[in-house]
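User: Design a sequence. Structure:
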């Protein structure tokens, strides 16, 4: 395996919607490995949301309920990881490190790259920054978690999985 691409999905591992993009990488000679971050994809916590903070949430599809930054299941998990001192953001990087180690030791990967569609490329950029053995595959998607930009844009819904203490500068 000369070039191995760790594919980070927006809501779990590689899906049918990702196939046209992934096929392009396969055609370029990449081996593609996809995995779920803990708490997402196949090991998603199977709860529905009933929220007094946002009663509208009970009427939307389960995926939107799960990832809602206001009252979703994932935000509760993320907050608990912050309280226990193991931020979810760092757990995602650790999951990628485990996947990278696996493809290196078990599959013989010589060069490991990481990428993902849209928002997922933000965590891919952080993974490449944190893990010296992993490179970021260049793409058009943003590759940084820019909390200052998210706050300044006044987005009400934002990627809760990227919450990290000290993530936003205060002016």
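Assistant: Done.
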């Amino acid at each position: 395996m000369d070039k191995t691409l760790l594919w980070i999905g927006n809501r779990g591992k590689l899906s049918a919607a990702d196939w046209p993009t992934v096929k392009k990488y396969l055609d370029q000679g990449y081996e593609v490995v996809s995995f779920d971050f803990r708490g997402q994809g196949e090991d998603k916590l199977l709860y529905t949301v009933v929220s007094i903070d946002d009663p509208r949430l009970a009427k939307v599809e389960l995926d939107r309920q799960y990832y809602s930054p206001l009252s979703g299941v994932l935000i509760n998990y993320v907050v608990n990881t912050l309280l226990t001192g193991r931020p979810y953001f760092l757990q995602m990087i650790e999951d990628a490190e485990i996947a990278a180690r696996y493809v290196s030791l078990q599959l013989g990967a010589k060069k490991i790259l990481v990428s993902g569609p849209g928002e997922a490329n933000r965590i891919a950029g952080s993974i490449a920054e944190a893990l010296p053995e992993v490179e970021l595959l260049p793409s058009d998607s943003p590759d940084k978690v820019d909390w200052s930009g998210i706050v300044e844009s006044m987005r009400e819904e934002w990627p809760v999985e990227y919450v990290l203490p000290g993530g936003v500068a205060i002016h």
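Residues 88-105 form the longest helix (18 residues). The mean pLDDT is 84.
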